[in-house]
Amino acid sequence: MDASHDQPDRPAGLDSIADLPGPATAEGVFEEPLVSEAPRPVPGSERSSRLLTGPLRETVFWLALPVLLEQFLNFCVGTCDIWLAGHLPDESQVTPATAAVGVAAYVGWLASMLFSVVAAGTTALVARHWGAGEFDRANRVANRSLALAGVAGLGFLAFIWPTAPLFAQALSLDPSAAAITVHYLRLDGVGLVFSAFSLVGAAALRGAGDMRTPMFILGTVSLINLIVSATLVYGPGPLPALGVDGIVAGTVTARLAGGALMVAWLNRTGDGLRLKLGEWSLRGRETRRILRIGLPAAVDGAVLWAGHFLFLKIISELGAVPLAAHMVGIRIEAITYLPAVAWGAAAATMVGQSLGNRDPLRARRAGHEAVLQCSLLGLLITLAFTLGAEFIFAAMHTDADVCRIGAAAFPLVGLFQIPLLVGIIYAAAMRGAGDTRFPLVMTVVSTFALRLPLAWLLGVELEWGLWGAWAAMCVDMGMRAVMAALRFLYGGWMRVKV
What angle do CA 370, 330, 202 make, to 5 degrees? Predict the structure, then answer.
């Protein structure tokens, strides 16, 4: 690592937080007036000391690495589910099962977006307090967040059980695919109750700079999912062959295990965040702060999901084969989210803790460094997607038409993977500072003003099919990257009050 990279490179005229764009005081950023720009020592926390004063490039890299492994295992689960659906023993169920698993992935994504009403505020506040050495306040925020997670998980289950048929109807699925989808969504909703605890607990631990524990817990969840699903689909030995039901059984089992492991870990004794049931309350100042930051993030997630579901509806108008090809392509494109989420999580932690430690310049540089490191991996992904599209689709699905349509359009998507990760990382960095409103603006503009109308025009009206719809998706990704980069460069996220 280049140690010279970690020497302060202050822009001209930017000598303290008072020289940032906007008001000369810090009341808009911190709850208390800023008295010094020098990093303050954080007693009793070697990990926080490294985050606040260690070499920036190495710190960002080692923060991101555990999350990258965790995301890789999660990607393997999603990819395995799609592969299992495409290789069921009963070939008549292959296409409807692929659609069902794909729709369930979208609904699971919706749940995670709604859970972000808690997770986004949790990461920002825990990181800010941890960076300031206020460990008791950070722990109080974490416990309030877990209480809110339970409400969010049960609320989503109450939502998805009666509305599952509506998702199948909205996509005009045939009766066989619709029946599988409804059954899948309802069972998965039970598992998502436990996912709320594991996701919010992971958000709190990352805010405190602990990336390894979420990696072990969520990585274990992924391994359980892989093993149980693959076993129950085919039923080796005396076990029954459950087909597509085996996929969802593995998912639910893994989600339950993840929630239990997270609660058990936080219930231990020792340093760091700890479970305190007496702090589980839906009232109080910390709860209001979590929701004030998290609500825009949840609205952002819900709006983004709605836009993507409408996008899925447009693709469903193209026919069952393009829809199946889209499900396979999107699952493969999730490879890009592995490093993007990993370096985004590192950026969010670094930004939040640096601002809590009154060091805005380190916060800014951490965001840029995360984008730089991840872009190098993004280049490799771009080459793989553009040059290996035919091989990828042939390995993922047995239907020749699905492979032909998907492979023809996928190289276009490959060209926009770096803009995709740039938008994700800068948005994550802003959320780490508590700036959750601007990403909402980005979503509305890029999704509803660009992606959806262009997808309908190019894919349906001009009859360019899946290629046209994916071209609209690429325009969306490009716009989000530009908007996020400009917002981060101009520093408005530094003035957000948390």
Answer: 50
User: Is 140 in a helix, a strand, or coil?
Assistant: helix
**DSSP-assigned states of every residue in 181-248:** HHHHHHHHHHHHHHHHHHHHHHHHHHHTT--HHHHHHHHHHHHHHHHHHHHHHH--TTS---THHHHH
Strands (E) across 328-434 are located at: none
Q: Please give the pLDDT value at position 434.
A: 87
pLDDT of residue 29: 38
Tell me which residue of 239, 218, 249 sits closest to 84, measured CA to CA: 249
pLDDT of residue 327: 83
What are the DSSP calls for 466-490, one per residue? HHHHHHHHHHHHHHHHHHHHHHHHH
Distance CA 166, CA 171 (A): 9
End-to-end CA distance of the chain: 34
Q: pLDDT tens, 204-251? A: 999 888 888 998 998 898 889 888 888 888 877 777 777 777 888 888
At 171, is the secondary structure helix, strand, or coil? coil
Identify the three-state secondary structure at position 446: helix
DSSP 458: I
The residue assigned the tokens 């998290």 is 294
Output the DSSP codes for 79-104: HHHHHHHHT-SSGGGHHHHHHHHHHH
Residues of the chain with pLDDT under 70: 1-49, 89-93, 95, 269-271
> Do 375 and 422 meet the contact criterion of CB atoms below 8 Å apart?
yes
Which pLDDT belongs to residue 276?
A: 85
> What confidence tens digit (pLDDT) does each residue in 287-326 have?
888 888 888 877 887 888 888 889 988 998 898 889 888 9
Which is nearest to 297 in space by CA: 199, 213, 170, 228? 199
97 and 244 Cβ atoms separated by less than 8 Å: yes
Which pLDDT score, from 0 to 100, does residue 300 have? 84
Question: What phi-psi label fits residue 109: left (phi over 0), alpha (psi between -120 and 50 degrees) or beta?
Answer: alpha
Nearest to 60 by CA among 417, 354, 293: 354
Residue recorded with tokens 């072990």: 216
- Taking CA atoms, 429 is separated from 18, 200, 222, 298, 489, in Å, by 21, 18, 26, 16, 12
Joined together, the tokens standing for residue 397 give 């699905």
- Cα Rg, the chain, nearest whole Å: 22
